[in-house]
């Protein structure tokens, strides 16, 4: 049984370690917010957020590979349906890219000038295939990428407070939905779902929006577990410091009689 002093020390230790664990967890979770770019409130069309910038970047990157690959497939394919669809996508991605550059210029947002390494890999993978396999791979990878970009565009269309971004997002939604329908009309899609499996033999991983880092959450959990282990250790340590239970206090009446007996012996 712990003494009152040990109980106070244990309680203090538990509170301290709990605060440390919570501080670590919240610090890790809030770190991305602290590093995020500030909202641009100087634009007359409304504030420009990171989500708005990300939208412009993702659509620009999509156009940098989907336009060129569509033009090349239109020349390479022997399938009339694929040729017609790819030709239309090549033309419309050029128009969408012009709209992306115009919106970015109005909002002073910098954009990339080349596809991502992953997108370049998709292009190389598609063009390395024989015509029939290239057609199927082109349709499925491009459709998967369109489906992912669609979620980004739709989300920012609903959340943005900037008029330029809102109008651009609506334009993007119209293009992307039309392109998904055109790709599906070829009859080469592996699935009738708008979400195409990214690990199939004729598909690939599409561009995905940023997601929270699960490693940060696990680190916070580990710190909380460490705090719990230290607390248990302190409980055992304090228990060793007082191995015997304290003698219970004597009732007041017994103490009074004992005191009177000692007084009589002294007198």
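Sequence proposed for the structure above (267 residues):
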């Amino acid at each position: 049984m712990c003494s009152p002093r040990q109980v106070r020390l244990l309680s203090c230790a538990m509170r301290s370690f709990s605060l440390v664990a919570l501080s670590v967890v919240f610090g890790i979770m809030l770190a991305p917010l602290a590093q995020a770019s500030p909202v641009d409130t100087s634009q007359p069309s409304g504030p420009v957020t990171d989500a708005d910038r990300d939208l412009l970047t993702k659509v620009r990157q999509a156009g940098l590979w989907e336009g060129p690959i569509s033009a090349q497939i239109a020349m390479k394919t022997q399938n009339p349906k694929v040729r017609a669809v790819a030709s239309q996508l090549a033309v419309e991605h050029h128009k969408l890219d012009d709209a992306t550059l115009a919106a970015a210029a109005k909002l002073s947002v910098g954009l990339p000038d080349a596809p991502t390494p992953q997108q370049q890999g998709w292009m190389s993978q598609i063009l390395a295939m024989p015509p029939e396999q290239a057609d199927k791979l082109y349709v499925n990878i491009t459709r998967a990428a369109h489906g992912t970009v669609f979620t980004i565009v739709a989300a920012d269309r609903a959340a943005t407070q900037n008029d330029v971004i809102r109008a651009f997002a609506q334009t993007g939604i119209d293009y992307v939905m039309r392109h998904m329908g055109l790709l599906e009309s070829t009859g080469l899609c592996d699935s009738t779902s708008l979400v195409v499996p990214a690990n199939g033999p004729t598909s690939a991983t599409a561009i995905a929006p940023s997601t929270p880092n699960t490693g940060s959450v696990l680190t916070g959990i580990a710190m909380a577990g460490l705090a719990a282990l230290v607390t248990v250790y302190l409980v055992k340590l304090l228990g060793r410091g007082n191995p015997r239970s304290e003698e219970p206090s004597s009732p007041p009446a017994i103490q009074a009689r004992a005191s009177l007996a000692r007084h009589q012996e002294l007198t």
